[in-house]
Design goal:
heterodimer, A: Rossmann fold, 10 helices, globular, B: alpha/beta, 6-stranded mixed beta sheet, 10 strands, binds adenosine-5'-triphosphate, binds magnesium ion
Chain lengths: 276, 284
Amino acid sequence: MNAQSEELALEVRNLAVSIKTPHGVVHPVKGVDLTVHKGEIVGIVGESGCGKSTTIKGLLRLLPANSTVTADKAQLAGYGDLLATPVRRMREVRGAKIGFVAQNPFGSLNPIYKIERQFYELQKAHKTKVSRKESREIALRMLDGVGIVNPARVLDGYAHQLSGGMAQRVVIALATTLSPQLLIADEPTTGLDATVQAQILDLISGFVHQEGRSMVLVTHDLGVIAQYCQRVVVMYDGQVVEHGSVMDVMVEPQHPYTQRLIASVPKPGEKLDVSR
Amino acid sequence: MSLVEIEDVHKVFPARQRGGEPVHALKGVSLHVNEGETLAVIGESGSGKSTLGRVALRLIDVDSGAVRIDGKDLGAMDANTLRRQRADMQLVFQEPFESLNPRMAIGAIVAEPLQIHQPQLGTTEIRRQVLSTLEHVGLPQSFADRLPGELSGGQQQRVGIARAIISRPRFVVLDEPTSSLDLSIRAQILALLAELQREYSMAYLFVSHDMHTVEWVSDRIAVMYLGEIVETKPTRELFDAPEHPYTQTLLSARLSPDPREPHAYKAFAGHKTVRDAVENQEPA
Ligand SMILES: Nc1ncnc2c1ncn2[C@@H]1O[C@H](COP(=O)(O)OP(=O)(O)OP(=O)(O)O)[C@@H](O)[C@H]1O
Ligand SMILES: Nc1ncnc2c1ncn2[C@@H]1O[C@H](COP(=O)(O)OP(=O)(O)OP(=O)(O)O)[C@@H](O)[C@H]1O
Ligand SMILES: [Mg+2]
Ligand SMILES: [Mg+2]
């Protein structure tokens, strides 16, 4: 936690999302606050369907046109208010200022471009000049960093030739290529075994803590929260029900949902009880 | 005789272009799954687990080796016989959204196996079973009319599970079926799967990266590494005495959910990758 400070990286107040559907308007996010300091990793946990992905996509302006996002504040340090930015200008923010790893990695890879081209397009869009050759070298280095054993083969292939965990790692490599100050990752390691997961989280932790960057990490894995995050936000039904240091929240959870969550961690050696 | 038998299967994905390398995804894999049993498959990302799952259901062809269900060779079946055989075999895909038709309502997606294999049930009965299966996986009945894009990742995953279990197949490949679920819903789904298994003697091939889940649900565990199964053991035995260096590395990399117990695991103890760590260490 070398570079963790009181300096804010992201400050979100009262973020709400509503979506118009054929069955009426739904409100998946109802006033979420999120504070991220420089040099820290903030974890978000919560029940499946409680609004974690919608919160993030709302902030990044990635929700479809039938949705409305409001907030009192959504301030990205060194930039300005994210919600005051026109949607078309968000392309410049995503990638360069905020790296995003979506929950479905295949959804953020272009199925008809080789992986190499996706690294090239990303760099070309944000830098004045990058040659194909430079771009390929950078991509090889990024893929090697996330534990891809044969990066050249991956670069010369297409998304559908990747395993689930390989696709996740390609997306993580893409999201960090431009060294964004903030990384937002939605369940980035679900397809990785514990060894590769540790390699990648060690890498990202180094990136965050040593260089004063920040990360928001959505995960269902309480081991990841306990071992890699400094603070945690617990969501339930579109709202934040508890937040604080990982030590406080995980050791002495206050909200009934958090208590239930922590109580359902399987104990080593336990067999599934189907008697219910 | 085991319900499912896989014998010495090889699968190579050919190189797509000149100069490219083919990928030898399965290098002589053998395993069996008994009725009413859960065989877990764990292993490195890219080691061939999903390929194995697709091979076990003959969704892709093998280069050599055999896959048998009930002693019958899936590779020797004609299209019609295979189609009928499919009534007994289902897959929960690793990538939920990629496996759901974005233009089909959830209700229609879940109904599909029944419509194909048990059309005699009739629309009313099929609808009734769809709604009750949705409820069993913790989704409100109103979701039947929604599209996949209107669901969260974990909700999509549960639609995939509902589709796989609705026809009570004898064999299900579950590829990371609970990776997007929080612990309390995960426990609920695993209990449901266990209940169905007990009632209908279903056989599961359960691919997972989550060692807690694997320990919880499986009878035996097969460990894959670089396209091969490097050890297969009853669950308790594998946890107590892992033999292959990869398995040992894997077990030592588990993260404690208690922040007061910082994890001692340093990624691969000075080795750059897990491969180096495994290769520079002799089997115990
Ligand atoms: N387009 C939409 N129309 C209607 N409801 C929606 C739509 N998109 C999302 N929802 C609902 O909003 C809620 C929040 O979804 P979200 O994807 O944010 O959940 P999540 O916390 O990320 O869950 P998971 O852990 O399962 O990924 C869910 O109940 C979902 O069904
Ligand atoms: N259609 C394909 N064409 C070419 N290569 C493929 C194809 N499908 C899989 N592969 C390759 O086969 C290998 C095994 O992939 P598979 O998806 O079976 O791995 P996995 O063990 O399921 O990994 P993960 O845990 O990351 O999901 C990988 O190297 C992958 O790139
Ligand atoms: Mg989500
Ligand atoms: Mg897989």
